[in-house]
Amino acid sequence: MKKLKITLNAPAVLWFAMICSAVTLLGAITGGGSTALLFSTRRASLLDPLMYLRLFTHVLGHASLAHLMGNMAYILLLGPALEERYGARNLLYVILATALVTGVIHNLFFPGVSLLGASGVAFAFILMTSFAGFREGEIPLTVILVALIYLGQQIWDGITVRDNVSNLSHILGGLTGAGAGYWLNLRKQRGKL
Known about the structure:
Layout: H1 11-29, H2 33-38, H3 49-57, H4 65-86, H5 88-109, H6 119-130, H7 141-160, H8 167-189
């Protein structure tokens, strides 16, 4: 019988999860100070260099362990297959694009509210995964169903539920992931990936 060993199967996803965990732990140790300073985005002066950094780092910060675990469940479930299919570098670009899109739009439309967490990235991964069977000139029924279920739920919740969940970030993350999944699959089919 062959001996089993633990392998590092998805380095980008695993590093992202570890950094999110470390940032959340640091936030707990500092009473949320580090999270507010570096890992949540909000509208700030364009002269504030940290405002630009936070447009990307807000996806690393989480309000609680439960918040972190909820996001990491999706990211660790879907991320390795996406990383294997598209590569670590492309997945990192998707994470960065999702952070930037959700951060900029949030700051424009919700100036007095801070945004943090990787739920936009989780939704990007959900919609990217649905494009796995995509072929040029076709739209898989699974893409339509996933979009209706996940994005439809977020639109509905955004209208009917009052909580601290940023449904807009989920929607924007999903749309970013859908666009990335479409584009990356086209490149893969054309032999450019």
